[in-house]
Amino acid sequence: MTAEPLPEHPDFLWRNPDPKRSYDVVVVGAGGHGLATAYYLAKNHGITDVAVLEKGWLAGGNMARNTTIIRSNYLWDESAAIYEHALKLWERLPEELDYDFLFSQRGVLNLAHTLQDVREGVRRVGANRLNGVDAEWLEPDEVAKVCPILNVSPRTRYPVLGATFQPRAGIAKHDHVAWALARRADELGVDLIQGCEVTGFLKDGDRVVGVETNRGRIHAGRVGLAAAGHSSVLAERAGIRLPVQSHPLQALVSELHEPVHPTVVMSNHVHVYVSQAHKGELVMGAGVDAYNGYGQRGSFHVIEQQMAAAVELFPVFARAHVLRTWGGIVDVTPDASPVIGRTPVENLYVNCGWGTGGFKATPAAGWTFAHTIATGEPHPLNAPFALDRFTTGALIDEHGAAAVAH
Amino acid sequence: MLLITCPWCGPRNETEYRYGGQAHVPYPDSPADLSDEQWAEYVFYRDNPKGPFAERWMHSIGCRRWFNVLRDTATHEVLTSYRPDEPRPGGNR
């Protein structure tokens, strides 16, 4: 047997430095949001003395578990503004980061199955257009032209009565997004430190001055939390409470198929969302499990219900097999909108509460969170998403309004 | 699929129940005296621990009664269930 020598391992995309004793800014969580925050701290604000601390491995949490849907067709002005900012950043990031992470603007259909769905969809299209978000209302025959494998027959249990369509929406390769951001942040001088869990916070009175970690004490001028499902756990260690509840959110993929599904389809009413990955897997998700959980898994009946919905909408999927299922932990706020801003602890900032929709917002979350950390003041885009809205009552209620149930 | 024991009907599948969030959240004694911060705390803030959590469940397709469950949110292990007029086993937290 002739032994071919194994190829050289490709170069790593970032260094793996030991933590320094002190940084200007420490970001907790090396998922998409933490990495984007570090990237924009360096690029937009010239702050490069930054560490991103990650208890596991880079982008191994929800960044590795989401269904990669990107869209900006939210109802309320505040939401449309921040998600549309994200979409505009997505459109230029592959070139800016010099990394083709397979951002594919194949559009998203949000189906209507009831008269109420139709009214809500038509209203949202109007609101989207006023906010500069591309949106159309499609009748069932037009829906079938966009996605021929969708069953638009009036004889199904929940017939498709129409859909909203956002042509600029799409999907991206989630791992590659994280790697692209990590590589560029690293090049700009950011230390990405994996296997480094924050176990406590150093405080001087009401001011945070650093973090305790399993790799020692790290001093910091400012600390930003971007820990998604574990935000409450971290906040408790910092002595504050957050208005979030952590839930399992499950997703699944089928085995590989020829390209059959040209767009992204979401149905609020029967509740499933489906796209087809570049490799060929059908990627499906639905709602959260009802109970609180940190176990990164959920209950099987939730998967059964989303599969029933998928087969109802796409009869062609009936013979597809599930390849694998998984769960991530999402932190959900009472109004289903995120929190990005200051906390009661000085120099401690939080980006949390993105619930089921954080991936699409990755660049805008990083952009606004970096601005907030760098200047101590919110960017106009995240000012409405402050923690104090739960005291003032100025909620941004995207439950249902955001084109998908939460 | 969780297996949850209704105090009145016995062990049943999770699909028979509806979830109700954190248990033992008392209505304020004197609501008129609450500040905005205290109202926010009562309306919007709930514990979200990683570990044992006392929570409300309702046997929605059985006896339709509310009760409390002590469940570990990290392992999903159901530790015990008890009637709403009973205190949390082992004391609070």
Describe the structure.
The complex is a heterodimer of chains A (406) and B (93). With 406 residues, chain A is an alpha/beta fold. Chain A has helices at 32-45, 77-96, 115-130, 140-146, 174-187, 231-237, 300-313, 362-375, 389-392, and strands spanning 22-28, 50-54, 69-70, 108-112, 136-138, 162-166, 170-171, 191-194, 198-204, 207-213, 216-225, 245-256, 264-267, 272-276, 281-288, 322-332, 339-342, 348-352. Chain A is 27% helix and 26% strand. In chain A, the strands form three sheets. In chain A, strands 1, 2, 8, 9, 10, 11, 17 and 18 form an eight-stranded mixed sheet that branches. In chain A, strands 5-6-4-13-14-15-12-16 form an eight-stranded mixed sheet. In chain A, strands 3-7 form a two-stranded antiparallel sheet. Chain A is globular. Chain A starts with 21 loop residues before the first strand and ends in a 14-residue tail after the last helix. Chain B is mainly beta and 93 residues long. Chain B has one helix spanning 36-44; strands at 3-6, 10-13, 18-22, 52-58, 66-72, 78-82. Chain B starts with a strand and ends in an 11-residue tail after the last strand. The model of chain B has no long low-confidence stretch (mean pLDDT 95). At the A-B interface, helix 9 of A face strand 3 and helix 1 of B.
Helix content of chain B: under 10%
The main β sheet of chain A shows up as: 8 strands, mixed
- Roughly how much helix do the residues of chain A carry, as a percent range? 25-40%
What's the total number of strands of chain B? 6
Mean pLDDT across the residues of chain B is 95
Contiguous helical run count of chain B: 1
General form of chain A? globular
Strand content of chain B: 25-35%
Secondary structure topology:
The complex is a heterodimer of chains A (406) and B (93).
Chain A: E1 22-28, H1 32-45, E2 50-54, E3 69-70, H2 77-96, E4 108-112, H3 115-130, E5 136-138, H4 140-146, E6 162-166, E7 170-171, H5 174-187, E8 191-194, E9 198-204, E10 207-213, E11 216-225, H6 231-237, E12 245-256, E13 264-267, E14 272-276, E15 281-288, H7 300-313, E16 322-332, E17 339-342, E18 348-352, H8 362-375, H9 389-392
Helix pairs in contact in A: 1-5, 1-8, 2-8
Chain B: E1 3-6, E2 10-13, E3 18-22, H1 36-44, E4 52-58, E5 66-72, E6 78-82
Antiparallel strand pairs in B: 1-2, 3-4, 4-5, 5-6
